[in-house]
Design brief:
Radius of gyration: 52 Å
InterPro entries: GIR2-like, RWD_dom, UBQ-conjugating_enzyme/RWD, ZC3H15/TMA46_C
Pfam families: DFRP_C, RWD
Number of helices: 7
CATH superfamily of one domain: Ubiquitin Conjugating Enzyme
Shape: rod-shaped
Protein name: RWD domain-containing protein
CATH architecture of one domain: Roll
Number of strands: 4
Strand order of the largest sheet: 1-2-3-4
């Protein structure tokens, strides 16, 4: 690489990047790079591209390195940027390539910032969707199936029986021995409803009076004709 070629490229770069370019030695320069057209709220990233010109430049790649000045970049992201820069450099061998490399770096930083913003937005939308579904689930409740209803009914009946047993126990504790005996005796009696459900036709022999006589109800029935005849006789007597 001739000194004239290097001086000419440096002059061009200095006119394009007057505030970003600095020369650290005869063969080393440093150019700061940031994303283009950052939108409001997007996090900025600033890097420094360090270039060491080799004797074979521009027919061979210069030595390149990146320093992070602002923002956070993962090692994998830095390595990806370096791989892109080397690829672009290989495509421009034989030409002064530093301006092209810096331009490409700025474009990649812009894309990286946009990707981060889109990823963050997608994460926020996902959180919102999950929150909405959780709230709807509270309102909607759990669908009832035959199995779930039977399980609930069994649990409910068990809890109700336990509650009644506890109440019964407390009630008995408050009674005297005589009152408890009388209470248990009355509880053992069957109610009318229980007797009815036991024999709906009331055919229980214990409920039938053995000495009772049957009655023919037909003996007490009067026909419509007999009633009308009696009414006519009554009117006749009045006359």
């Amino acid at each position: 690489m001739s000194a004239d070629v290097l001086a000419e490229e440096y002059e061009v770069l200095e006119s394009i990047y007057p505030a970003e370019l600095s020369k650290t030695s005869e063969k080393d320069i440093r150019i700061e790079a940031e994303p283009d057209d950052l939108e409001e709220g997007e996090d900025s990233i600033k890097l420094a591209l360090k270039v060491h010109y080799t004797d074979g430049y521009p027919d061979e790649l210069p030595h390149l390195a990146l320093d992070v000045l602002e923002g956070d970049l993962a090692d994998s992201e830095l390595e990806g940027l370096m791989t892109d820069l080397r690829t672009v450099g290989e495509e421009n061998l034989g030409l002064a390539m530093i301006f092209t490399l810096v331009s490409h770096l700025r474009e990649r930083l812009s894309a990286l910032v946009r990707e981060r913003a889109q990823r963050h937005q997608a994460e926020e939308h996902e959180k919102e969707r999950i929150a909405i579904e959780a709230e709807e689930a509270k309102t909607r409740g759990t669908p009832v199936t035959i199995e779930s209803f039977r399980a609930w009914k069994a649990k409910f009946d068990k809890e109700l029986a336990e509650k009644k047993a506890k109440q019964e126990e407390e009630k008995l504790k408050a009674m005297t021995p005589k009152e408890r005996e009388e209470y248990r005796r009355t509880q053992s009696r069957q109610s009318g409803r229980q007797l009815f459900e036991k024999n709906k036709n009331l055919e229980d022999e214990s409920l039938v009076d053995e000495e009772a006589t049957s009655v023919d109800i037909s003996q007490y029935e009067r026909t419509r004709e007999e009633e009308e005849e009696e009414e006519r006789l009554t009117w006749s007597d009045d006359d």
